[in-house]
Amino acid sequence: MKNIDSTSHVTGKSIYLDDIPILQGTLYGAVLDSPIGHGEVVAIDYSEALAMDGVAYILTHEDIPGENQIGGIIPDEELFAEKEVHFQGQPIALILAESEHIAFEARKLVKMKFTEKEVITDPREARAKGRLIIPPRTFSLGNTAAAWAQCAHIFEGTAQTNGQEHLYIETQGAYAVPMENGHIRLSSSTQGPTQVQRTAARVLGVGMHRIEVDVVRLGGGFGGKEDQATPWGVMAALGAFVLNQPIKVVLHRLDDMRMTGKRHPYSSDYKIGLSEELKIIAYEATFHQNAGASADLSPAVMERTLFHATNSYFVPNVEVTAYSCKTNLPPNTAFRGFGGPQGMFVIEAALAHAARELGVEKCILQKKNLLKNGDSFPYGQIADGVGLSQIWEDLEAKFDLKAVEARVQEFNAQHEDRKKGFSLMPVTFGISFTKTPMNQARALVHIYSDGSVGVSTGAVEMGQGVNTKMLQIAAQMFSLNPSRVKLESTNTTRVANTSPSAASATSDLNGKALQKACQALQERLKNCAARHWGVTSADISLKEERIWVKGKATDMSWDQLVDMAFLARIALTENGHYATPIIHFDKTIEKGHPFAYHVFGLALTEVTLDCIRGTYEFDSVKIVHDFGKSMNTAVDTGQIEGGLVQGIGWMTMEELSYDQAGKLRSNSLSTYKIPDIYAVPGEILIEAFETEGTEMAILKSKAVGEPPLMYGMGAFFAIESALRAFNPDFESTYDAPFTPEKVLMGLYQSSQP
Ligand code: LUZ
Ligand code: MOS
After folding, report:
1. Which of 232, 350, 649, 662 is most buried per CB count within 10 Å?
2. 524 close to ligand 2 (CB < 6 Angstrom)
3. What is the pLDDT of residues 283-309, one digit of tens each?
4. Cα-based angle 594, 600, 605 (whole degrees, multiple of 5)
5. pLDDT at residue 546 above 70?
6. Which residue CA neighbors atom 4 of ligand 2 most closely?
7. In this structure, are residues 81 and 41 in contact, taking their beta carbons and an 8 Å threshold?
8. Fold of domain 6-18+25-118+166-259
């Protein structure tokens, strides 16, 4: 089934926040933000801005009836700064005017005075100064200290990954409308409607029941709207509450880039030890996460770095420690992969380093150390359903790895100014929110008396196709034509207490809740039909909108059965609740079974380097991916292609840059380069790994949102291999992204001082 939004997307009819009709009396907000990285507010003079024609009001912390606090995991973040600012771009006030233009013009008239304090942008410096968001955490297995003695080869080094701007096409925004009795109806471009609702209630000092959050769809999220859609939604709600007027806040792209957090940059140390047979015996790593000025989701992101520190390999002795370092940058946040990629990069760098020093191909080390069924992850979960060795062999066979190697060698022997390289990038990604209580969801299903169906879940459509999957599930459960089912907006008054659409788990959690609701309704309808036909409900089946009795079609249609049930006063509405079974985690010992299952896969990336210019093109990426049993190959293939290209962007061209004062220098699309159509590999081939799938996944169709991003990491190592074909002296510092400038320096770097 194709994506249910495809027609309305290409005809421009899909509704986003900015397409919601504006009510009379709406005021528009421009966020006033800190121009300095760290300091104390001395004075702010709003008088000129307030005097401007069309300016209605300026909201500040003084207008907050509840708490001036929006921190989710840790209460360490003000909605509007009061006395101290901690990063450039931190919100101080919301200027409300009759038009967006006036609000932005008025912002320029505000005069601010600060006393400046020390700005720290480097996570290692923050750690040295004791500026940590939470105490460090360590995951361990075996005993690394004792294991080094058994290692024939030990390598140590550092690795860095830079941050990444989400660059959702639709910037952050919200529209709040005051209803009666202090009730606010809030449309928000958020992945987490409940998070926005809860935080608005806290800031307004009212119960959550007074705030209704509604989401039709987002123009992209990628994690950037898991937590950071909240401030703008809360500001709009606060304005509507205080002024009793509708308030619209939509960030200009430059404001969005400056004010919001991004993927966490990491700076890490590794030590890896191998046996004579090239088995990894021990691995240690220390991760310095650049958290920015407040916690946001950093502790959870840090945790996932530890979970994925050994990626797809079995290592018997592991000790990995992570520090969440508080700096004067915008609070960094969720981004597709959620710390996992940052952890994986370091062990991939360590293996590349070892391969270089040992004079073997990196893929030999990778293949020798792949995780197998029954191996323990450092966090105690035992690997099962692992097909990594099989996936590797499939890839070798399906994409003729030997021929690729030969072709690359031959090309390199024949060309001086161009070199090819390739890499293999295995991925093992755990599916579930690492915080166990978040793994729950609900779905509300109405069967209308004409037989059509309305479905509400906690899932937010952000372009990933979750609504298509939900619709498929309901249509399949009732055996209805998909046109008989409507996916409703995501709304906190219909489905409450939702987890954000995140962690690749949205279809699993909401889909299973939906299945349960449909099952209950189906049972009720079957019982009704059974009474009518004088049989048991086990004799009844629903097929293609018709009622079947003992395997034979009757003349009763679905619509007639629904009508009959309605007249018999049977409930045609059901709420399904799902909580992932089995999973648990004990932080006191850092052991447990945090993931419902893992997704596995392998990518083969080929690149051609221009050794005069330092530029490169990816010839192909060939992937064997573990979909389980994909319930929608079009949607799932789209997720793989998008994730791959986003990962390649992170690894190669997206160069986030702050200056010493904490000012974002890569502040627009002219200074921050994201992949365009020319950056997409010439060929992307995706083969499904043949497997039974797992009952833990919806319809055995495994989660596919985040895992493919990590295939993009193959780009870094493919470039390294091509670069070394030109300059065998090149020693990588494993500092991603591998921009053409860095490649060019590497091509002509010499090992002699
Ligand atoms: N969000 C979250 C996530 O709150 N917890 C997670 O474990 C997670 N994992 C991936 C992406 N978002
Ligand atoms: Mo996400 S990084 O699954 O919001």
Report:
1. 232
2. no
3. 999 999 999 999 999 999 999 999 999
4. 140
5. yes
6. 223
7. yes
8. Aldehyde Oxidoreductase; domain 3 (3.90.1170)
Cα 17 to its chain centre, rounded Å, is 21
**Domain 266-433+588-747 = CATH 3.40.30.10:** no
The closest ligand to the CA of 302 turns out to be: 1
User: Are the CB atoms for 301 and 228 separated by under 8 Å?
Assistant: no
Give the Å distance between the CA of 126 and the centre of ligand 1: 25
Q: Ligand 2 mean position to 648 CA, how many Å? A: 18
Q: Is 255 in the pocket of ligand 2 (CB under 6 A)?
A: no
**How would residue 751 be classed by pLDDT, with cut points 50, 70 and 90?**
low
- Centroid of ligand 1 to alpha carbon of 333 (angstroms): 10
Q: If you ran DSSP here, which 8-state letter would residue 313 be given?
A: B
Class of domain 440-579: alpha beta
Q: What is the mean pLDDT of residues 690-719?
A: 97
% of the chain residues with pLDDT over 90: 98
The single-letter code of the amino acid at 565 is A
Residue ranges per domain, the chain?
A: 6-18+25-118+166-259, 266-433+588-747, 440-579
Q: How far apart are CA 503 and CA 500, in angstroms?
A: 9
> Which 3 state secondary structure label does DSSP give 234?
helix
E strands, 558-610, are 573-579, 584-586, 591-593, 597-610
* Active-site pick, 77, 212, 606, 706: 706
Domains 6-18+25-118+166-259 and 266-433+588-747 share a fold: no
Q: Which of 332, 338, 379, 587 to mutate to test the pocket of ligand 1 (most atoms within 8 A of CB)?
A: 338
Q: 272 near 154, Cβ under 8 Å?
A: yes
Contacts of 164 (CB under 8 A, 6+ apart): 262, 263, 335, 649, 650, 654, 656
| Sequence-distant (≥ 6) Cβ neighbours of residue 497 within 8 angstroms | 194, 442
| Mean model confidence pLDDT for the chain | 97
> Measuring from atom 11 of ligand 1, which residue has the nearest CA?
503
Q: How confident is the model at residue 366 (pLDDT cuts 50, 70, 90)?
A: very high
Confidence check: pLDDT of 750 > 90: no
- Is 168 close to ligand 2, i.e. is its CB under 6 Å away? no
Nearest ligand (C-alpha, residue 164): 2
SS (H, E, C) 737-752: CCCHHHHHHHHCCCCC
CA dihedral angle for residue 395, residue 401, residue 403, residue 404, rounded to 10 degrees: 110
**Pocket lining: 466 vs ligand 2, CB cutoff 6 Å:** no
Q: How far is CA 670 from CA 171, 665, 674, in A?
A: 17, 11, 10
Q: Is there a catalytic annotation at residue 393?
A: no
Q: Average the pLDDT over 628-656 and give the result.
A: 98
How does pLDDT run across 63-85, given as a tens digit for each residue? 999 999 999 999 999 999 999 99
Q: Which ligand is nearest to the CA of 438?
A: 1
